[in-house]
Amino acid sequence: MPHRTPARRIRGRRRHPPTGPTPRLTDASADLGNRISHSAAERISGTSIAVNRWHHHSPIQDARETYTTDVPTLIRRNAQFATAESRHGLVINPTGNMMVVACVDPRVDPAHVLGLDNGEAAILRNVGGRITPATLRTMALLSKVGAANTATHRPGDWNLMILHHTDCGMNDLASFPDALADYFEIAPSELERKHVTDPRRSVRTDVDVILENLHGPAFFVSGLIYDVDTGQIETIVPPTPLTLGEASTR
Questions:
Q1: CA–CA distance, 164 with 197 (Å, rounded to integer)
Q2: How many folded domains does the chain comprise?
Q3: Taking phi first (over 0 means left), then psi (-120 to 50 degrees means alpha), and beta for anything else, what does residue 198 get?
Q4: Tens digit of pLDDT for each residue in 167-224?
Q5: Is residue 197 within 8 Å of 190, Cβ to Cβ?
Q6: Do 56 and 141 reside in the same domain of the chain?
Q7: Does the pTM exceed 0.85?
Q8: Which of 31, 52, 67 is the endpoint of a domain?
Q9: Strand pairing partners for 241?
């Protein structure tokens, strides 16, 4: 049954009281409104009325509920970045001799959670931050890019950081074994060894995949866990040197 609802926030806009004469209700409408109000009061007993709930919102809460990032917003931010933060003279090889493999989860942006500067590290992101055959193939391609730009190589050791995290969406994918098997390019019967619901075991597994497939001097791999609730990083596998030998990208 249609009825009048309390004033409320609509997509970030405040509904203001009318400035003209107050509308008059007919006797039938008034009676209907009284009955609806009585029924509504029973239904919301012990809770806050919507309008009161809205009045207690902070501006930040309102913004989070109604704000969506759009392209014009990003263009404005880029203009600010280009003016105040852009660094000229960066080269294609990372200045920190660092590569990070991390998840696409928006809460786990390596640049933010690790405090990386632009150009400091090469960053690969995929579902779960996993070392899959596709990840290894991408690394092989990047090594060729690096070899084509030897003039910008920096001396010193290289570090590969594998960054997994808590509350990962991989947990939701555990009920889709066929899709995960395709992702890892393995048989569904082999999924258990990937430990998709246990980030501590999964990051150890991926470090082992790197140690089995990549070889060379002055190159270290480590495995870390990011806690999305605390913002803290935990080292699960400390920097471990690769062995010498021929690299594989199987």
A1: 11
A2: 2
A3: beta
A4: 999 999 999 999 999 999 999 999 999 999 999 999 999 999 999 999 999 999 999 9
A5: no
A6: no
A7: no
A8: 67
A9: 220
